[in-house]
Amino acid sequence: MSNDILVITEHMDGKFSDVSFEMVGKARELASALGGQAVAVVIGSGVDANVFASDSTLHIDDAALSGFNPEAYAKIVEALVKEKSPKAVLFGWTVTGMDVAAWLSAKTGAPCAAYAKDIRVDGGGFVVSCQVYGGKLMAEVAPEGDMAVIACLAGSFPVEAGQGSTAATATASPVDAGSLKVKFVEAIKPAGGDVDITAQAKLVSIGRGIGGKENVELAEELAQALGATVSASRPVVDAGWLPRTRQVGKSGLKVKPKLYLMLGISGAPEHLEGMKSAELIIAINTDKKAPIFNVAHYGATADLFEVAEAMLELL
Amino acid sequence: MLTPVEKIIFILAAIASVGFTFHGFKTIIDSIRKGRPAPELKNIPGSLLKAGIAVLFQQTIFKARKLLSAIHMGLFFGLITYAFVNLTDALEGLIPGFDLVYGGKHLPYENVPTGLINTFNLIADVMSGFLLIAITVFFVRRFITKDKALTFRDNVLLNPKVKAGGQNRDSLVVDVFVVMHVGARLMSQAFRLTEGADPFMPIASFLNGIFGASEVGVHVAWWISLGWVMFIIPYLSRSKHTHFFMSPVNLGLAKQNPRGQLDPAVPLKMIEGTRFDPGAKHVHDLAWTRVLDAYACVQCNRCQDVCPANFYQRPLSPSALEVNKRYLLKEATFGGHPEKLELPLTETVISPEAVWSCTTCYACVRVCPVGNEPMADIVDIRRRMLVDGYEIDSGVQNALQSLATNGNWMSKGKRLRGKWAKEMEFPVKDATAEPVDHLWFVGDTASFDERVIPITKMVARIFNAAGLDFGILYKEESNAGNDVRRVGEEGLFEQLVEQNMAAFGKSQFQRIVTTDPHSFNTLKNEYPQFGSEWEVKHYTVTLLRLIEEGKLTIKNKLSNYKVTFHDPCYLGRYNGGFTAPRKLLELCGVEFVEMPRNCENSFCCGAGGGQIWMGKVAPGERPAENRIKEALTTFGEGAGDKTQLFIVTCPKDMIMYSDAVKTTGNEGKIEVRDIVQLIAEAVGVEEPKVAEPVAA
Amino acid sequence: MNIVVAIKHIPSIADDLPVSGKNVDFDSVDFVLNEWDEHSIEQAVLIKEAVGGTVTVVGVDLIGELDNVLHLALAKGADKVVKITADDPAADSHMQAKWLAEAIKGMGANMVFAGVQASNDLDGQIGPMIAAYLDMPYIGGVSSVEANGDSATVNKEFAGGAGAKYSVSMPFVAGVQAAPKPPRYAPVSKVRQMAQTATIETVSPSGDASAGLAFKNMAPPVATGHAEMIEGSSKEVAAKIVELLKSKGLA
Q: What is the 3-state secondary structure (H, E, C) of B274-319?
């Protein structure tokens, strides 16, 4: 039993995601309050692990783990937890972290707090603020017991606080890759030919409010008139109205355009993760209570079709 | 007159003709009988008689195309006359000495009714002239000036034979028949005038003056005239001119239920051992009365003229649906390809896109002179497509899913339905909690749409000001299901009806008032089949009554407005609610002008039948845009200092037309208002003033 | 192929969510099927249609209204439905996952699908927990599953069209992000027919697990900032936006 905080970092194509640094920074703050250590855990090969401002960094370096493997990650973290008995294990509430956090919680019996926006130390334990119900409610919960699993929404903490150069200690994987039931076969690259929305200066982004595939055309027209590209929130892509390559958000892409014009996106936390650092955010939504208005720079409660058509006339 | 050999030939030919005719009509009747049971028809002899009278006076065709209808009338009377003419001609041929010229003076009988015969001769002679003129007009219209009203849009699905000109061939055959038959008949009479002109046969006498009399000529002309008849009658049973015989029958067997009551998705009258799937996939899944429709249709395209989807360049033509139906049936029967009946209607009769373009405005059914219901076929086809898992428009799917879960199509939570009422400056009763006199059925658009809520609130204020004891169902109200049913989702419709009936059951009220014509229609015409016994009123009627009873007083005459009024399909054409809104406008003291397309002939805004749920797919001028232009043309130039208003009485219209005013760039020239906004101004009910922030 | 789909009945976020004490006021909300579960049901039915097999949908009945959802699942192509009667609207993911795992245990599932997440997964999603309780591997963010014999080819999504292909030996649990095709529409007549004819197998909750979270507070988020709202008609809004964009050189 220690007061250490383990941070399960995540990386792709040799680069760590922002949330990894964010969590390391937060872990340092929490660990120092508890008198423990912030331990960054890097799983996988082909990545420079000496980039965190952690108290220590553990690099489970195994060539068999070059691609993300949820089963391997889960077992490695389970073994680490057994070995280190940390006070908390931090995951990103991301496409990869989500595969392991709740599993670890159920496996070890440690409580799990997901959708975490903030964590603070309170009387030797933690109080976690979680953004649930599509951002409509904030829950403050205190995990009980010796260890907490906390899955953090990306963008909740500053990135800089976690950046550093702590030298990583490499160890071998405690898990026999051959025994795994999940096997990484190959990476799937985004379908070629489509535009890269992360490289666009202007995006017209559409959400569920667009209503149907037939209406995407209107957004395309508006985008064209603005010299922008059309992007979308998850439901639009899940419905097959636009390709995956256009999806902004947690399970999509992170974008930082000069203009992010949002039509009919209410602003679920998953979406906000992908776009909140855009320079100018303008949101049009019929629901005046839509959470997006807490994030956008300019907003209007209006019918998106009417506004789009009126804008087209003016452009 | 005829030689014995000629007589034998004639009798044999007549037997053959009767035989082919009998076969033709038996084939048709057999194929009609394969249709599903239709809703029960009451007093069939009575309705057939009524239809007969309507046909005799040609009442039903004058709903559109007045001039052409008059010519059709000439043709009709001509052909009726010729039925008798042909009979006497046959007798002339068969009975020696039977000769009606000169008042029948050559007849070998005593006491010949000369006056009667002369009258008959005169009518026959003059009608021959009319017939020739009428057929020439129709011929010129189809083949020379090529009236576009007789053609279909390129995107409309057509049977290949129709595309190849099958209809024109039919028309040409009949045109030639009429010309030959009538011409020959006139000549046969002219050749009989051995003693010079007969004053009761002016045309024949004129021809006699040119060609003289001739015994051989009589024979030749007689054979041409009656020979054509013997050919044409069986031919008609195989052409679109089954219309001659089937249209009066079809009119007599036309829909008897209220216009606003759709036929059930499966026949109520079950045939033992038959399990029906809902709606129609194949032609014989249609009710037999609607299989008959195909044979009654002569493809005049009056329905296509009034179809808003066709106007909007969608691939829908109600008449193409009927013509394709008949060609399909013809190929399956006379053409010897019964396997074609196994092809789905969506491949043979109407394209899926056309099926989903219909606004269910009822204009096609209303205008049809022969009582056809193409719209009902379309709804039946939608029903089966939905059950068969056809991939529907994503907007419609979203709407239906939301309706199934939330009871509204706007993906709003049930509890938000009464939110507007809670924002009012006075309490709006919850009818499920306390008894009320009027249950106000608000509807989805009026409850949720931010653009319409101010109007909804104004209706509440007026009701309140008039002291009307009313309440709403709050979260217990579900969409009434009118459009859900017309989109073809019969199961969801039934679910919504049950939910609403349960809510009604929980509440105490005397009558229902609605602001939405769509809800009004189904509540009034369809809910009784599910046990509703309440009187249902549209708010225009309620408002008028409140004024007439002195509960509301017109204080301000609104002479500063020049207005026109749009009849919503589901209030007007479906339910005849024409007078109350006009009365209200009169009471308000506005200057009222009527658009050319009004009342029964009102033009749909394009939103009904689920269209409002679909994406804005089609390019081109939308029906609502066309309607706004119609209003502006009606207003003409220079209303002076009056404000021009387009008055609506339907929440969907409010949205459609406000939008159309903007997209046609007519903001400032014309303004869309709900009738209640005028009433409010006239009776002096205002929105409460928002408290001004107190200066610091 | 024996596919089990574990579903979650959750408070609808289409309404405002009232709070009572330190949790949602469950009496004042409508419960709906988690939207990702629609995708996992679709994915299961697609596999059944491709290679045959049975689809069993199982969920915890929190408020006595799960039948509608299960009938819907049957109408969409599920073969069997099971409800665990809990009658506790506040049952957390851990409890539900435990009960679901116990119910699934004897079903001989080759694959278990769950929605990748739900908006009320405060204590994590049920998918990975079921995997942990049943000692099966878990893979989430799944966008397609193809069954081939004893294993399946599973595509997992990372971001923006990037992802990875995995080969997973059965049995396993997958958290479905999106089915390869949008979830189909089930006509209500079919749903109602199911309601009349189908039987729902009912089981009692078995096993015990807890989120281990003490609730301190629950409230709508305090807005840290708010957009500058542009007022007026749609046309005015459009004009102001265009003006704003022009002033910033963005239009």
A: CCCCCCCCCHHHCEHHHHHHHHHCCCCCHHHHHCHHHHCCCCCCHH
User: Do residue A13 and residue A124 come from a single domain?
Assistant: yes
Extract the tokens encoding A72. 């391997």
- Cross-chain residue pair A113–C122, CB shorter than 8 Å: yes
Task: Kindly report the pTM of this predicted structure.
Answer: 0.86
Q: Judge if B423 and B507 occupy the same domain.
A: yes
What CA–CA distance (Å, rounded) separates C212 from A94? 22
Domain count for chain A, please give it.
2
Report the CATH number of the C2-203 domain: 3.40.50.620
Helices B394-406 and B490-506: crossing angle in degrees, nearest 10, is 30
Q: Tell whether the torsion through CA atoms of B229, B230, B231 and B236 is positive or negative.
A: positive
C17 by Cβ neighbours in 10 Å (0-12 / 13-18 / 19+) ranks as buried
The residues in C 49-78 lying below 8 A from A, measured between CB atoms, are none
In degrees to the nearest 10, what's the CA dihedral of B235, B236, B239, B240? 170
What are the helix and strand counts (H, E) for chain C?
Answer: 6, 15
Helix (H) or strand (E) holding B326: helix B318-332
How high is the mean pLDDT in each 10-residue block of chain A (315 residues)?
Answer: 93 90 96 96 92 96 88 96 96 94 97 96 94 92 96 91 95 90 90 78 90 85 92 86 86 87 88 87 87 89 89 89
What residue type is B269 in one-letter code? Answer: K
Range of the domain at B502: 412-548
Determine the residue among A133, A136, A208, A213 to mutate to test chain B binding: the one whose Cβ has the most chain B Cβ atoms within 10 Å. Answer: A213
Q: What separation in angstroms does the CA of C26 have from each of C12, C31, C32, C67?
A: 10, 9, 12, 18
CATH number of the CATH domain containing B301: 1.10.1060.10
User: Is B532 in the same domain as B648?
Assistant: no
B75 plus B218 within the same structural domain: yes
Between A and B, how many CB-CB pairs are < 8 A? 34
Cα–Cα distance for residue pair A89/A76, rounded to 1 Å:
13
Among B463, B647, B487, B479, which Cα is nearest to B568's?
A: B647
Rounded to a whole number of angstroms, the distance from the CA of B616 to the nearest CA of chain A is 6
